[in-house]
TrEMBL record, chains A, B:
Organism: Pelosinus propionicus DSM 13327
Pfam families linked to this entry: AsnC_trans_reg, HTH_24
InterPro entries assigned to the protein according to its UniProt record, in alphabetical order: AsnC-type_HTH_dom, Dimeric_a/b-barrel, Tscrpt_reg_AsnC-like, Tscrpt_reg_AsnC/Lrp_C, WH-like_DNA-bd_sf, WH_DNA-bd_sf
Signal peptide: none
Protein name: Transcriptional regulator, AsnC family
Length: 143, 143
DNA sequence: CAGAAAACAGAATAAAATTCTATTATTAAG
DNA sequence: CTTAATAATAGAATTTTATTCTGTTTTCTG
């Protein structure tokens, strides 16, 4: 990975739908070479995918919350958490057999209902962090 | 927004670089119509962007942490937090003038150094949640 | 310095994006 | 129910892009 690859990654992180021709113009290389570099980054697993980002508000998902979930060591709650609609992230975190999930719902009611129905029964305790406003939210990385 | 638009959003969330021609084939509409629908979704602000997702491991960013930061009401810590390299999310959360950030670093040392140098001085307290393994991480939404 | 490997540019062609026009629904008003 | 207006669509034409191929240049290695 050289400077050119880093520029490509920067561009594709900013706009994943940028055409190969435009990337080529930006980095001042021929389209053929540019394409093979992008393909290589994909094959090497450095680029893992391309996602469209949607406006949660417009989709009626106004609620964002992080929930810390403590479980007993023997429960398999992982596949359950992953499958919950609205759950965008599931992390296993250090200390006390804990999971941290990031979840989007329509409102506080739908969140509370979801936690009650799907999570509470499988966990020792939950601690919910309600997001009021989001100031930054991206998967972009600088390196 | 009808069912066709939802299909388009589903496809672009799965692969933002899918060609318009392929989207058209999937939803069984002419490319011209498909393109105008995608453009409309962009103009309406329903699609807010397209991001390439990168492999953190490959980029040497093995550490992921969430940090809860408590501040006094009068401090402007927001622009500071947003500008920290590796910070992917900054949320203002309910209760006790708190921020929650999601941050990627090279290792525990670089995390601790970052918090010490940039955050501690501006905050009353910080609470760091270290991620051991990530089971799911996407911005994809089903609706 | 010589040879091999990788990276590159540029041309050719296949495919896609984009625009345009005409046709077909859909909707709203009378 | 009919008609006019609006929106959605298909399909053709054209521009642009993606992709492959060939030959050259550069870079690395011994």
């Amino acid at each position: 990975m050289d400077l050119i690859d880093k520029k490509i990654l920067y561009l594709l992180q900013s706009n994943a739908r940028m055409s190969n021709a435009n990337i080529a113009r930006e980095i001042k290389l021929a389209p053929s070479v540019t394409l093979s570099r992008v393909r290589k980054l994909e094959e090497q697993g450095i680029i893992t995918g391309y996602e469209a980002k949607l406006n949660h508000h417009e989709l009626g998902l106004d609620m964002l919350a992080f929930v810390l979930i403590q479980v007993t060591g023997d429960k398999d709650i992982e596949s359950l958490l992953i499958a919950i609609p609205g759950v965008q992230e599931v992390h296993n975190v250090a200390g006390d057999d804990c999971y941290l999930i990031k979840i989007r719902t329509r409102n506080t009611e739908s969140l509370s209902k979801l936690l009650k129905e799907k999570v509470r029964g499988e966990s020792i305790s939950t601690k919910t962090i309600i997001v009021l406003t989001t100031l930054k939210e991206t998967s972009k990385l600088t390196f």
